[in-house]
Amino acid sequence: MVTCVDIRVLNLRCGEAYNGHIVKQRKEYAKVSAYHIYEHGIVRVKVPVPFPLRWVNGYILHDDEGYVIIDPGLHTESSIQAWGMVWEELQIAPQQINKIILTHHHPDHYGLAGWMQQRTGSEVYMSRTGHGLAQRMWSLHSGEWMTDALCRMFAAHGLPQDKQEKMREHLRSFYPLVSPHPEVRYLEEGEEWQAGSLHFQTISVSGHADQHLVFIDQERKLMFCGDHVLPRITPNISYLPDEDADPLHAYLTDLDKLASYDVQIVFPGHRDPFTNLQARAEELRRHHVKRLLKMIDLVQSPANVYDVCLAMFGEGLSIHQLRFAMSETLAHLVYLRRRGYVHMDETGLPYRFIKIRDYRTE
């Protein structure tokens, strides 16, 4: 059963809900948010973000001791207003929220957690690795190290000089969007937790984000998958400055891991809840195979990552989109390099990739 409610929304329409289970729909328009109520009292909150995706999914679960929030969103005034409107509509007092659970460290999921912890007094849970990455990437002091490392990496792979400072400013712009940082407790693979009648097992996956947490109730066959599997759009697979990283391999391995579970409905971090996890996982795998085949064709002659990126994604990218596109291009080329399909020439800058042999699907 699903109740789909848009509350005070401007230019933000209700997405497709869980097919066959909508019992009523009501729309009222204003500025920022929408929520949907599903079976087992699961509330999906469309938390606005200032990116092309427009919103991230936050979730409210009813607990015997109050409420659990999964992924509160980015720290912006619009996000704060959105949660305030939903709490008021559902008659939830902030002090009734006793847990905030984060699937991963990306700002659009993690950013508001510190503010919400201060507002509610609740505990915040995420993976140990995810917390470490949030500190490394998004804190004002240690975040500068990662900003420098990312900018050096992009420069070494062909990012033009005029875009390098824009990239640095872009990365720094996230610091206030994730502040204050929360005090965190850790959830690990296999750990179990409850929210009312729902009993979840914690699964750890990587590729989109290291030690990204997924939660499954096997009895009710439902899953909260964060951004590891998304409907209609593909999760970004980004390479970070780590010589041992192989994020695409990790992603595909853990995609198979999630697809092995028998679930009837999946609650993602973006877009609408969906069914048939196995079919969507296979679509995503085929997508990456096609991308690998296209990229290996683009390096028949030596080419740097920036040139391959523009050939793949086009030249009209914002600096925000370019960061994701270059990191994704590099993740795919690293995957090919580690398996002996391409060579990376590091004798001069920018580094260049060149095909060694045809790609064969694995």
From TrEMBL:
This is MBL fold hydrolase. One of its GO terms (molecular function) is hydrolase activity. Keywords: Hydrolase. It catalyses: 3',5'-cyclic CMP + H2O = CMP + H(+); 3',5'-cyclic UMP + H2O = UMP + H(+). Counteracts the endogenous Pycsar antiviral defense system. Phosphodiesterase that enables metal-dependent hydrolysis of host cyclic nucleotide Pycsar defense signals such as cCMP and cUMP. Residues 55-270 form the Metallo-beta-lactamase domain.
